[in-house]
Amino acid sequence: MTINVHYFASLKEHIGRSKNELPYTSPLTVREVWEQSNPDILIPNNVLVAVNMDYVDWDHLVEDQDEVAFFPPVTGG
């Protein structure tokens, strides 16, 4: 049982990888997913997060087989 974690854009370079898998043992918040996946890296300011392609807040609970994506704010023009 796993949670699939993805990092995009400049966040991918900051973390040093584009994805990882986190063993699922019980429901975790998105914040706990970050902390367990990156124990030595503080959450950068303004990072957005999505679970299964829907924007969520940092207290959202993540379940087995969920896909969690972290990415910097997107700008366009």
In whole angstroms, the N-to-C terminal distance is: 40 Å
Low-pLDDT windows of residues: none
In the CATH classification, which architecture applies?
Answer: Roll
The gyration radius over C-alpha positions equals: 12 Å
Tell me the domain tally. Answer: 1
What is the helix content? Answer: 10-25%
The chain-level structural class is alpha+beta
Largest sheet: 5 strands, mixed
Shape: globular
The tally of strands reads: 7
Task: Determine the mean pLDDT.
Answer: 93
Beta content: 25-35%
With strands numbered from the N-terminus, the spatial order across the biggest sheet is 2-1-7-4-5
Q: Helical region count?
A: 2
SSE order: EHEEHEEEE
Instruction: Return the CATH topology.
Output: Ubiquitin-like (UB roll)
Look at the structure and give the CATH class. Answer: Alpha Beta
Q: Output the CATH homologous superfamily.
A: Beta-grasp domain
